[in-house]
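QUALITY CONTROL LOG
STEP: pairwise intake check
CHECKER ROLE: data steward
CRITERIA: each record must contain a sequence immediately followed by its structure tokens, with no blank fields

ENTRY 1 OF 2
RESULT FIELD BELOW
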Amino acid sequence: VQLQASGGGLVQAGGFLRLSCAAFRSIFRFNVMGWYRQAPGNQRELVADITMGGTTNYADSVKGRFTISRDNSKRTLYLQMNSLKPEDTAVYYCYALYGSTYWGQGTLVTVSS
């Protein structure tokens, strides 16, 4: 399973970005898809995930600001990030759980104060 993440960039605090994670095959049967992030010097942490049935889960630090969604017809996972804070600065990785866990390459999000 190949995943390609995109959408990162530099944004000011309070701004927004939308990350995308495109799969090169149908994602309909992927049990769970989600986003992790890793800031310099920190461990990778779960940001949000979404099940095949559409149940979502968010880290407390992003609840109310980030929205995860998946479009099976476009084979794409999204992360809408609003009200960004400098502490959201990190490399964001998408993943898919389908038997094994598959990872996309990271996309860098930098939020300036």
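ENTRY 2 OF 2
RESULT FIELD BELOW
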Amino acid sequence: QVQLVESGGGSVQSGGSLRLSCAASGYTYSSYCMGWFRQAPGKEREGVAALNSDDSTSYSDSVKGRFTISRDNAKNTLYLQMNSLKPEDTAMYYCAAAIREVVLVTTPLDPREYNYWGQGTQVTVSS
């Protein structure tokens, strides 16, 4: 049974940092594309960062240069280091995995590519 459990969210002032973690279990962790997504109230879920099966990374323009996605295969954990946070980064953040036969995801920031999701962790950035 695939499980993704996020942690590390919280409240921080503008300019601060947070590191989100996503603990994965129930599948061969290092084989598949994984991503971080966020959804603010009244807005669609958007891709923030992704780490593909070939270890390539993708970032949305809004976070490029501020956020870094990484993973520790030994711990089956995906991370999102978020620096220079802005109030517009406030959202629920979700971890997702694209566990499928074709492991390389062509549009890794598209939530429709992913079939397993965590419950989310809230990030609130105050000005």
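INTAKE CHECK: passed for both entries
DESCRIPTIVE NOTE, ENTRY 2: The chain is about 0% helix and 50% strand.
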